[in-house]
Automatic annotation (TrEMBL):
InterPro entries the record matches: MBL_superfamily_lactonases, Metallo-B-lactamas, RibonucZ/Hydroxyglut_hydro
Record-stated family: Belongs to the metallo-beta-lactamase superfamily.
Residues covered by the Metallo-beta-lactamase domain: 47-298
Renumbered residue ranges of the record's region Disordered: 81-108
Gene3D superfamilies xref list: Ribonuclease Z/Hydroxyacylglutathione hydrolase-like (3.60.15.10)
Cofactor(s) the protein requires to work: Zn(2+)
GO molecular function: hydrolase activity; metal ion binding
Bias (Polar residues): 81-99
Protein name stated in the entry: Metallo-beta-lactamase domain-containing protein
Keyword annotations of the record: Hydrolase, Metal-binding, Zinc
CDD domains linked to this entry: metallo-hydrolase-like_MBL-fold
Amino acid sequence: MAEHPSLPPPAENQIYVTISALEGGSLTLPESLFITDADPQKRTTVPSLCFLIRHTSPESNKTTNLVFDLGLKRDFSKYTETQQHHIAQRQPTSTSPDTGESLRNGGVNPEDIGVVVLSHVHWDHIGTPSDFPNAKFVVGSGTLDLLANGGGYLYPKELFNHDELPFERTYELPPVNPQSTSAAKQQTEHKWEKLPAFDLHVLDYFGDGSVYIVDAPGHLFGHVNLLAMIAEGRWVYLGGDCCHDVRILKGEKGVAMYSDGCGGLRSVHVDTEAAEGTIGAIGRLMREVEGVEVVVAHDGGWRRANGGRFLPGAL
């Protein structure tokens, strides 16, 4: 019998991280915009899942608290007028608890968060950055240009807050393609690589094989995911908005296409072909590599089945 492909084995004295799910609010999605063969009338209220990752250095015994995604803003007046118009189509929504309150309810002060990694800067993932005054914000390549200038007619700058993030504490990861250029401030101490059994580029954030940021192109400019080792042979893959329904990862549904209003077709992804490539890579990881749990941001089924894994619980 052929062996399953595997991710890197733990190193000697491997550091493992602890991951806890966080409530980040909820929104309501029409299934027909996201999956093929959907009931055109069906709308589903889903969470915007966020996660606390705790990494402890053996040298200093210092724990770094990293939050992946921030969910919805609790104060909708802080969204732009264009964002609010879009949000009106995603009702009902809920913002209680939001990510800050979810942390406090679990015994963690948002002021003690050292790093916030945003999968991307859509309204339901950006949250309330001001709740994290001591955090370094890490975003994917191209994100800061998107916030400042938008991303074409389907992604006008009015869909984003140009001053959403604290620029002096925000670091844009370098592009996978070293020939790409960006005026944004970028991380230079990290390099993209490939892992065995996984087709997407990753970046070893802490330098010890415990947490990888994954370049996950397709959904929005700068979209990233996170892959973390929580025990020997056990990994968690946080997929953000790689897809909006886990059945797509399982191959049971496809990415829905719909009118772009200009005589063509579009999906909820800025680059559908790239998104399908990312989905394929994550789907293979989920199906073929033992010990990997994949969680996407809007998986209501995962939320209902895993209440005990929210802070102060853990995955």
